[in-house]
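Appendix B. Extra example for self-study. Work through it before the problem class; the solution is given directly after the inputs so you can check yourself.
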Amino acid sequence: MSNMTQSVNVTVETAKELGLLPEEFEKIKEILGRTPNFTELSIFSVMWSEHCSYKNSILWLKKLPKKGPHMLVEAGEENAGLVDIGDGLACAFKIESHNHPSALEPYQGAATGVGGINRDIFTMGARPVAQLNSLRFGDINNDRTKWLLKGVVKGIGDYGNAFGVPVLGGEVFFDECYNTNPLVNAMSVGIVKVGEQISATSKGKGNPVYIVGSATGKDGIAGAAFASKDITEDSMDDLPAVQVGDPFQEKLLLEATMELAKTDAVVGMQDMGAAGITCSTSEMSAAGQHGMVIDLSKVPTRQEDMKDWEILLSESQERMLVVVEKGKEQIVEDIFNKWDLNVAKIGYVTDDGLLKYYMNGELVAELEADPLVLGGGAPVYEREYREPAYFAESKKFDINSVEEPKDLKEVAKFLLSHPNIASKNWVIRQYDTMVGTVNMSTNNPTDAGIVNLKGLNKALALTVDCNARYVYADPEKGTSIAVAEAARNIVCSGGKPSAITNCLNFGNPYNPEVYWQFVGAIKGMKAACEKFETPVTGGNVSFYNQSDKNGNVEAVFPTPTIGMIGIVEDKKHITGTAFKQEGDLIFLLGESVNDINCSEYLYSYHDVKLSPAPHFDLDKEYLLQNTVKALIENDLIHSAHDCADGGLFVTLFESAKPNGLGFEIASDDSVRKDAFLFGEAQSRVVVSVPQEKQEQFIELLSASDIDFTMLGAVGGKDLIIDGENFGSIDELSDIYDNALKSYIEGKKFEK
Amino acid sequence: MKFGVVTFPGSNCDQDMIYVLETIMGQEVVNLWHKDHDLQGADFIVLPGGFSYGDYLRSGAIARFSPIMEEVVNHAKKGGYVLGICNGFQILCEAGLTPGVLLHNNNQQFICENVYLKPETTNSLITRNLDTNKALKIPIAHGEGRYFNTEDAIKELNDNDQVLFRYSTPNAEISEDVNPNGSIENIAGVCNKERNVFGMMPHPERAADEELGNTDGRLLFESILDLVS
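Solution. Structure tokens for the complete assembly:
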């Protein structure tokens, strides 16, 4: 082989500079039977990076349940999981992180995160119908936090709004553990007719290979390797590793791909995300057990004189690799020409399992596809883990050490003004939530976002959830809670949970205490997913969300974001969170517990940063959800809203607000009133019941094993608890609606 | 009436509009392609929302040079009906078919939310069946929707009864508090002097399907078709 990039003398030092371990370099030499040239080493370095290979997580990920009655494609088989939703339709969905780029360049980092996840969906032939996102930032009082928040929200908005897919849900959470490392997780959900989905595979000797979409530039080179490192003060030097997005190209690529999916010209297709041409050519070839010959000089480029390894590793956005059935080239070229997109034949499929990359007639790299990929020859590590000292320490917390405040009204107002609880409208109104005319939650707020399936009596229910503070306190229980809360949101909205995708945001896996959090999270997720029969269809692992500041390593809270989809079988079951009618009775389903563990109240009002995860019982949760489902199916309730962050008070306020209907309730004197109002014990739902259905309602509940309490009734314009007026809806809404905006505009958030 | 909905590269409300006209209103609709010179016999042309050509230069600035727009301009000049919504309104203004310009929202952010509109006149095809004392709840979704024109031109618009909608309270009162984007005199939609070309920033097609819980926007389509609701 000629040596064009091979002027670099490849040694173990070169390998280390590219982020490979010395033992990985040895393994590469063993696989090739020789020393790799620089281009080949670069290929290995990105394919074996954490981001592409899952080398430190795959052993545990394999323990998660993958099979379910509705699964058409299991985790890892394609770009995203595929669930049968009936009526000849399937739902493709996935969540992915773009944390590291967003920490450096929030606007482009978040925008390309949205672009990447949507491509994962439409490359399968599925048209995206909804997006969700889960965002975490540091202390709202920090200027950097505000800069990151503004940039990320604008990035998501500008990209998603132009692309034209509505945002149906999400979460925004602030904690100082995310000061340096924000988390930006984006989810996309698409619909495809069963049988029309496109595979990420390559086969058929002689079939041509095309690159379509944007031209290739020098942006995002080795981004995958960058995402597999801690963030340091030198990270700004990595700025060229952040990609630049163009939603207009993405929209054209979507429409062209949808036309392509209707033809029979495609053998396989994969989007170019991490590691660009390298990743798509090797993964598709390995999946189809074939090889490819690729001429890199045929790739349309944005800059002159790009090096072969730059073209191979570029993460320029809005590109796809398409393997076309020989003889049907014209069909493909016509479609992309119609949409004014690049369409360039850059190679062909071979049957020898070898990837051969040429540049200007010279062979610049030659290697087998299989050793590069996950499930093939990519390394797999078993990491050690160790319970951190804080875990035992947290168990020592005793509620009696916290004095109950005299003025609970003041606590209530504080919580409504807390950035984690206050309205996120400042964020949400920057996203187009209504394009596509499918959002059924706009005029009827629901716990999960509801997507209309036009022409059918069905709808999709979608949610993302994770309270990372609970996960930090107890990774296993906290992650079970995240899955349970997602399922609860779907059930309260009238749906049945189907499947989940996960985005696992953690610190450095080589730190045994971080890895202990990871292992706990997987165990908790497994237990809950088995209980709710919601298999894990795929997702993404993001390690290294930690920063090194003068030798102090700070990791984020372990944040395993759960994205869940569910099916509403009958649209008349869609149930909102808002009180609907004066006089309706308000019931709390689930147990009132003397528990303030990990609540926003305890953490922010009392400044107690370490306590165990809140009360949670998986079996009772399951029963509760089945009961809510039965209440909805029997048309016995007017609203359902789950108790989450901020506790029962916040839940009641959120039910009162949309229709301006207040309430009068009595507390339960078997528990402390602060715990009753602000505790975050799980497995609780507030429902409103029309008076004429009270008897049937009580009958149904009495037959279940669920605790339930009548709290009071809907009515008036005030929030009255035990005869005490906590404020009018207008007064409290003013606090709740304007708090976040005021902090962003400079007001200090304080108690 | 036969409707023609134009798809520019980057249009993203074209299918929503076709769904409403065809499936909900039961009308004949043809989808027109930006590279074509043929309106396929459509009587009423709709320029839908989106980000035509990426809106990279200025919203609507490139779309007006597309082949189909030559035909749309001719159609309008002959008195044919044209409705531009959101990006479609921006294109109409760029093409000079409706008066005024649309600037960045005064908070410099994209805004998507339900707003209320007071119909200002019943002297137009799209408002003829509306009640000028009753506000309609219709969503907006734009970054560049701040209607602007010179003082003289605004006077002329008012004198000629060309303002179709203003942002209002739920009780149809006009106030600066409910002006979402800083539009001059709360203007949300206008027509040309000849009253056959209509432009508006809010999206009536997003408020036309019962399943989404708001059908105020449907009243505009019913007005076009002169249906009594």
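Self-check: Residues 44 and 87 of chain B are 17 Å apart (CA to CA). If your reasoning did not lead you there, revisit section 3.
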